[in-house]
């Protein structure tokens, strides 16, 4: 087992990000983003402001106004690509040096316009993935394949009828769309293999004709190569996907297990993560929301506890809010608590960073912070925060995290601020 959790030796530096509505006891939707490059740390804000800071000094290099909520960031060559959530579901590329806009695309042209005025109904670019030259000795040379992949979705409901509309895109460097892959399911995660030849798409909700939680697309044309599904009842399917060589780690919302799949979808192993348990007369479970695979190891992160018969429960699943790692054979290596809800993992090689937000059933501010783990042995560090950590990035030894203010519903006290915090793991 790893040593006790400890804080980095040097405190993180802070750059305020303006105003945002306080989060409440329950975790909120994705409102912010952060991304590190060789020379920058970039923050995307809820009001659409995107600011690039010098990675060493945190001086502002440039700032632009994305037309809607800047909920995702990715670098492609010498461009920063921003994923939007708003009326148009805009994807836009900005010059890394100056912030000048290079191209943009509105995903609402494919997934449709919002059917009502609600954040949950707006077109939403849920994932970005760089293609082309991906800084790997096995990656294709820049220009040999699409430069960027993106997944966008839109939800609508009319009485008992619920529908998703989604599109996966492959973009060229100039913003031209090479291909689209459209379904009536809800994508939640995408990942590209080391060769750049296969793109894995994880679908969280399957309510229509599309009935597979995982689809692997050939990147040159967007043709489906193979698909996989946990085979469970209901519309819940996959929480996250992550390639490691020709294997794919999958967190399953369908049966609350973690899987490692081989080529063609062969199930190499599966592990129970937060499967149903009965406690004090209630059947409880938690969703495995995140997966990260690297160098023959896989880590999974679970989220909040729910009950079969109710969304409200005082019980807690014993494996809620946990990160657990397994070796190539599916044998457990280590596990730790993460304190609360993790919006999304960031990783670089062996290093995993988990931004921890509310544990709404406990409401303990001591759990707020950024937790960093070694995938190999579970060695861990903690950067405590007064507010909640909602987005994170790691590159080499540089770590960035977005803190958002939180006000628990039964306290009336604001904890933390809207800020970018940057530090080092050295």
From TrEMBL:
It comes from the Archaea. It holds the Pfam family PQQ_2. InterPro entries: PQQ_b-propeller_rpt, PQQ_rpt_dom, Quinoprotein_ADH-like_sf, WD40/YVTN_repeat-like_dom_sf. SMART domains: PQQ. Residues 47-253 form the Pyrrolo-quinoline quinone repeat domain. SUPFAM superfamilies: Quinoprotein alcohol dehydrogenase-like. Coiled coil: none annotated. This is Pyrrolo-quinoline quinone. It comes from Halostagnicola larsenii XH-48.
